[in-house]
Amino acid sequence: MSAIDRVKSLHLKPNSFPICDDCIAVKAKLSSRQESNIISRKLIQTTRFDRRKDYCGSCGGLKYVMFANKMGRSVIQKRPKEVARPRELSQIKPASTKTYFGENRERNIDLLKEIGFVSIGYWQDNNGEPELIQNDMHDASPALYAFVECGQVLYVGKTKQNLKKRLYFYSKPGVSQATNIRINANLKAALFDGREIDMYGFNDVRPMKVGAFYLNFSAALEDSIIDTLKPKWNLR
After folding, report:
1. Structural domain includes residue 46
2. I need a surface site. Which of 128, 137, 168, 181 has the fewest CB within 10 A?
3. pLDDT of residue 91
4. Which residues contact 58 (CB under 8 A, 6 or more apart)?
5. Do 121 and 197 belong together in one domain?
6. What gap in Å lies between CA 7 and CA 27, rounded to an integer?
7. pLDDT (mean) for 12-31
8. Global confidence as pTM
9. CA-closest candidate to residue 17, choices 71, 72, 45, 54
10. 175-228, pLDDT tens digit by residue?
11. What is the arrangement of strands in the sheet containing 19-20, beginning at the earlier edge strand?
12. Which part of the chain is the GIY-YIG domain (predicted)?
C-alpha cells in the first residue's frame, strides 16, 4: 500500500476523527511530519478531505488537523470524543486566536489577491528551521510579499532584490538583521505549533513618473496595505 493510501485509510475508517500531521506520520508509518503535510495538502485538493485548526483526536494537541468530510466543504457535524489536553494548551487565552485570524476571522488575503497578489509557496519545518518551498516569482524585482495564515495576512514587506534572495534571509538571518531575526523567530514558533504559513507575492513594474522622478509603485503600495490591514507581524 502506498503512503498516500495509508493516509487515506486512516480517515476512511468508521468513526474516524480529525488527526494532526504528527499523528498521521506515526500511524501511517511515514518518513517525517513533512511527508505527512505534503500528502495532506494533496488530498484536500483532489478528494473530499479537509483541514482546520482544532484539537487532534489522537494526541489532543491544538494543531491543523485533517479529516474526511463526507458532507462536503463544511464543518463536520460530530466532534471527536473529548481527549485530555496538555497543560500548556489549557492556559492559552481565547484572545490569542486574533493573532491567527484577525478580529472577525476575515480572509483579508482576498483583498490582496484582487490587486494581483498570487500564491508563491509555503513554509515548512526543516529540523527546527523554517524552510521556504517557493514555486513562483523567484526573480521578481521590485516586489511585495506577504506571510499568510488561514487567509489572514501576518506580514507584508517589499524588496528591490529578487524575491527568492530576499525571502532566503528570513530562514537564514544575519546577526545584524533585526527584522529578519524577528520574523524568523515568529516562523519557528508557528511551524513548531503545526500552523501553516503561506507566501504570496506581487510584482508590478509598470513605469510611473511624477515630474522628473520615477515612483516605486511597490513601495507606495506597501505603506497603504500595512496601514489598512495592520498585519500582526508588522510593527508600525
Report:
1. yes
2. 128
3. 41
4. 17, 19, 20, 23, 27, 83
5. yes
6. 8
7. 82
8. 0.60
9. 54
10. 999 999 999 999 999 999 889 999 999 998 777 888 899 888 888 899 999 999
11. 19-20, 62-68, 49-55
12. 140-235
235: in domain: no
b/e map of 7-22 (b: 16 or more CB within 10 Å)? bbebbeeeeebbbbbb
The number of folded domains in the chain is 2
Whole-angstrom distance, CA of residue 22 vs CA of residue 193: 11
Pairing of β 213-214 and β 209-210: antiparallel
pLDDT of residue 79: 37
Short-list 65, 70, 79, 76, CA closest to 37: 65
- Write the DSSP symbol of residue 160: S
**What pLDDT, on the 0 to 100 scale, is given for residue 44?**
75
Spatial neighbors of 157 by CB under 8 A, at least 6 apart, are 144, 145, 146, 166, 222
Residues in the chain: 236
User: For the segment 54-113, what is each residue's pLDDT rounded down to a tens digit?
Assistant: 778 778 777 777 777 654 433 333 334 433 444 343 343 333 333 333 444 467 999 999
CB 205 within 8 A of CB 142: yes
In a domain, 102, yes or no: no
Which CATH number covers residue 47? 1.10.10
State the Cα–Cα distance between residues 58 and 65, nearest whole angstrom: 10
Q: Does 140 lie in the same domain as 201? A: yes
**What's the number of CA atoms in the CB half-sphere (13 Å) around residue 110?**
5
Name the nearest CA neighbour of 143 among 168, 164, 123.
164
